[in-house]
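Lecture notes, structural biology module. Today: joint structure prediction for complexes of two components.
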Amino acid sequence: MFKSVGKRVPRFDGIGHVTGKTVYPSDLSMPGMLVCKTLRSPYHCTRIHFIDTTEAEKVPGVYSVITHKDVPHNLFSMVPDHHVLAEDIARYKGQNIVAVAAVDKSTALKALSKVKIEMEELPYVIDPVEAMKEDAPKVRPEGNLRVFDDVDTVRRIRRGDVEKGFAEADYIVEGEYWTPNQEHAPIETTASLAYLDGNGKLVIHSKTQGLYFTLGDLSNVFQLPLNKLKMVGATIGGAFGGQNSIHTDHIAGVLALKTGKPVKFHLTREEEMMYTTIRSAWRFKIKDGIKKDGKITARYVDVLEDCGAYTELGLYALEKNVNYIGGANKIENLAIDGRLVYTNKMPSGSMRGFGVNIGQYAEQVQTDKLARKIGISPFEIRLNNAFKEGDENHVGNPLVAVSGIETLQKVAKMAGVELPKEYQEMSSK
Amino acid sequence: MSKVLKFVLNGMPVKVVAEPQETLLQVLREKLSLTSPKCGCNHGDCGSCTVILNGKAVKSCMIIALTVEGKSVVTVDGLGTDGKLHPVQQAFHEYGAPQCGYCTPGMVMAATAFLNENPNPSYDEVKDALAGNLCRCGGYQKYVDAVMAVAKGEFGPIPKGSDVDV
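The predicted structure, tokenised, for the full assembly:
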């Protein structure tokens, strides 16, 4: 019946992989190519008083030493609040401050050692809960909590009346769940090769996952019209969401414009692990009201996202998280408060699920807790509350092609769990 | 300081100027433009730079280039004969083991050297042999299954006495 389902189908690009002929961005080089290295913030929060690059520029083999003043437009990312090169304050350890293009790596590193920089370590905050306190060090000038739509520091979802729902419940069950930051850790570290072609167009071979996101963002950084900038994608050695954020393309591009020569910026493993975007850390506080028969009457979730020092993709992750944290459950009375807090850490990027499945970790553990409280099985609690065809989800969208109940029944079967008859006869229809 | 280094690369003699601090990986990638060994960590942790040095799988980022004087180095480019893939390559391809493919050249070399030493391994021995090669996509199971398939002869005999001598 099927040509491919259930069969071993070799990848279309598999031969290139097994013969080592696949070319990744980090494999690229060009004649006369320069190597980029950057000076990074040594502290979690650094005030930069002054930078003198004169001595660094004198090192033989150095073509260019740049600071934020050399970047045509110094802001980038989806929410453009991240500096290509830090200005007066570097807000996380490892933020780029100065970049060098030189004939080789050792020359570039030597030049960086000659940069005169006067800086001061400022008070910093790493813990998201501490960061919300009145007297916490300010990560960002506008405050440590993100303001949504210029009015409110809370992203709210409201449905029904939770207080009424809690009053109707036989039990109240509460839980608090934390998830840590996580690095994407692709085996290929981020790399860019930027050069000007014969007609003056800036070409960047990138490891990006979002070629056109990056194109738009960088045309702004370089202040170049789109027909003067060409992004070239590639087969890449792993991304896992981490390459939705720009780590090297912007700096390599500025240096290529500055020097007129090809510039490669290839991160070391240490840089990749410590200074690129990460999955944000989260805290979920869930309060549920539940009846003895297993029906959830109300749910309140307090969501806190630790976004690091710049918004990057953290806002997008929070928006998605608050939409889905209620779970695949029909709950008449639901309230969700989502807050995004800035801390002096690497900015949060996207990672495998954009804030959705990380919330499901908390939601699923909490749901098991509900089942234990009233003495029913983990299957029964989910089947009791499952969405059905035509139900509205928590933000009012009608659901189509719902199959949660059938999925759970199949899972039970595969796990060798015999469901009571009434649960076997349930249907999403 | 720098010296002329002579060794045999994939069956052919090569001569290259190397610095004392340079690694075999650097010489292969940066001086000989052979980019199949990858630089995933440069700390000997990830295995993506694995090559076969005098018959043994080694992490080329941990080998000082000048120490390979007169020795034989084989990369994935040296495998396969008469336009045919080496059985390990063929098996990895047919089992769909590579995903992004970045760890694959190192996996091929680690598996090839291992099968030369131990042509009839147990499943656990294969797992041990590939333990030094990280795959972030999580394709381990298929790599191990593919090596077992090669050991069972599913992809034909492993060529012996070829010009690359592995």
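Point to remember: Chain B has a mean pLDDT of 94.
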